């Protein structure tokens, strides 16, 4: 059976060989809700195991091989590495060159959509920021949410689906012995080892989730597959043995869920749950094969056979046998061969004269390598055509294209990214569904645990926004910002949010900075109230004494603004 290190061999060697995946390799699992409740509601772990075993065996046998193959391609282990041919038996070059299209396309998609963190904006009009906003921000910081989203998007791009598990840590104790609310954590789960089962209603509500994993520790008592079953109230831990397709699961333990719904969320890349480049695997294989054959031709040319017509013009020497004596031909004469030193840079040949009944036949002397003619221009055109089709059909811009550069206008760049933007609009909607489910689970958990200031439906007031990660032309943005400001139609906060892409400072932080600067300026201003109630005669006497002190020290008293201007004008006239 497949183990940890050889799980990738389930789908190898099918390069350009017809149908690639089984018809059941991308099936969405469903079951009637009443059957689910019959088997799950009473907590009978035996009945639960029987239901899970059926789905587990199907996933391991049909769905996991497809996911494993797509993951192989992303890691550069393309099917060209398992291409079946007889080149080695014919003593010919057999290079296997795998292209990096899958990783390039995925990284472009992930960077474009998730290169800049997604924003979970509170859409309520309330002036004060509610407690759940601070709670979500702290949760995101503690779980490195920006990196988590990139991992989820990578899984989506590669396999067409991604899984996110919400779970809680052990609660901590206060000094008085009371328990704090356990912190919530989230983790991206490998799509190769997880699935969710839905009911058969039009809404397709999730019933339970499954995660299974292989423990291959060097101990006979721990080897095998472990299965975690997640429901809205309980998490069941099972041991399934060494073969998930014929499992007889044994209960290991249970835990409370605490989120009100099963905590394993399935994200979909599109309605078909396919990867971004899955439909172009044939073209990727053809591209790999073309590159490999080109490398083979170059190597075969370097190792081509050297053909000589005619006789070698060199001294002859006898062929010696193992006993050190010359070998003899049928007539008893020593067998002679040209005496050639392999280190010589050249070889002399002459026409060969073959006697026959009609006289002598002269074979002209020639020497050449035995090679086949390469159509390099046609080969180059074929490879470029394959690459162009892969870029076009996956809506991935070709950054090596000479027309794809930083000197293009924003409108030109928008047209180049038009196809990718249209496809990504659906992907953003599907991704937002998963994020909103995460927020609602957090909201439910905190509300049920009595966190201060959190209402039951706060999560519904969040809005998920995405910012494409593209090179910015800061000068154009600043000009547009100034134009918008001059219209007087936009608020200061809107303008700050628009300018955040240039400054890197959020609208909230910028507003706080402005408030701080204004407060500091007010502290440094002269306060006229300090002179209120001062006698004018006393103020005049103080000024007289100050001037007298300056004169005694040999310093000129400060000029009034009028005297300063008049003095400046006299200086200008003298200069003229």
UniProtKB/TrEMBL annotation:
InterPro entries: Portal_protein_SPP1_Gp6-like, Portal_SPP1-type. Residues 503-528, 548-576 are annotated as: Disordered. It comes from the Bacteria. NCBIfam families: portal_SPP1 (TIGR01538). This is Phage portal protein.
